[in-house]
DNA sequence: TCAAAAGTGTTACGGCTACACCCATGT
DNA sequence: ACATGGGTGTAGCCGTAACACTTTTGA
């Protein structure tokens, strides 16, 4: 076990990087900032910043999330640690170890400088690349993680407002997975899972202007899905 | 985006902690070291150490794995990043951010000072706690992750030697999950997954001294399991 | 009256569970 | 012979996929 001599190691900077995802107009979007300085000046990058001395990475991530989105209350938003990126050359200036997080937002207000935030903005996921540093990889890992967790957790409701229709919930799955799902079967599976969603009594909403008004639901107390809601089969899903 | 002023942040120590798991005599064991100094002098802890300036966390973890086990070749061993633990008070001496890894070993040679290693030794998983620092939590997270990955990946073969019987493979599942499985059904599911295991032609081995000799298998090229091999139902599995 | 979106019903298929049963080996 | 562990067969259950179909709204 190594000694804790303060000079035995080179100083590391520890940062957090955030892959903040939301759905806008039926398309997956990610929150990005434009870099003003070298390296990668002018490129887009994931928002992030240093972990402060008294903070955990989770605390720093939530603080950055509030700063970058300009939202007052980010306490209810889904935020989870992805993994840590620590290649020695990932930042050409110095040694930076970054703990990456994925955050999910229900709606998508354009973040115009809520606090001392940088000029963060929503960018469609498909047109986001290339990003600065190793952020392409982080973003891809976030997408993969979220897609996988939709299968066996109730994560999908984190993309939805407090009250939502089953059609909107289905759109979350279809957008993140890039597939289409059979509506009757989707409905049955969601309703068959106790605690996934709870119907709001009496409430209904018109969705597309036309058609039958849909019943409204709230997220239930469950966190896990049994049985899981599997993606349409594709062979050799990564381990 | 924060500035990269070298004085704008307090120095962080970045370490790796390893949850090295193996099966000995049908029981899950974890590699632990005994601490010689305060804090937690005399307590058991997960092996680990500092990330060196030119290393990624993954490189450091594999280096530590070789040092602590005393094995010459650790390149084939399964090693995966778990998550990063960064609570400000997790080490009372200074700010230490630790990237935790889980490692899986096929057999379990007792590691007697292979290199400059500390006196690491195998401890049955059930009697391992309490550990120093937040290592109880790290160890529990490693166990949970491995248990979950057995369901949908070919990870179980990482616990087995190059050639193994299906009974031994089943013991991996039963030991990690703490359950018993139906042998005929287990066999069918494993063999029905293309690329999970490949039979060694002609080979057979007696296992318990008695009984019919079992056919031998090798790990196949597949990494994912379709369909998954689910744990016997328990409600409310964590997300 | 038609299009659009929500919601219900039904049938066929496949995987899984829970067994019963046979095979080969050592004592 | 019998205990022990490996291996095969099978019947029923349950979830799912793939549809057809009905309901309610706006244009």
TrEMBL record, chains A, B:
Under PROSITE patterns, the record lists: NUDIX, NUDIX_BOX
Membrane-spanning parts: none
UniProt keyword annotations, A-Z: Hydrolase
Record keyword Lipid metabolism present: no
Q: Where is the Nudix hydrolase domain?
A: 11-145
Source taxon at top rank: Bacteria
The Gene Ontology terms for molecular function here are: hydrolase activity
Quote the InterPro entries the UniProt record gives. NUDIX_hydrolase-like_dom_sf, NUDIX_hydrolase_CS, NUDIX_hydrolase_dom, WH-like_DNA-bd_sf, WH_DNA-bd_sf, WHD_NrtR
Q: What is this protein called?
A: NUDIX domain-containing protein
Q: Which organism is it from?
A: Streptomyces aquilus
Q: What is the lineage of its organism?
A: Bacteria, Bacillati, Actinomycetota, Actinomycetes, Kitasatosporales
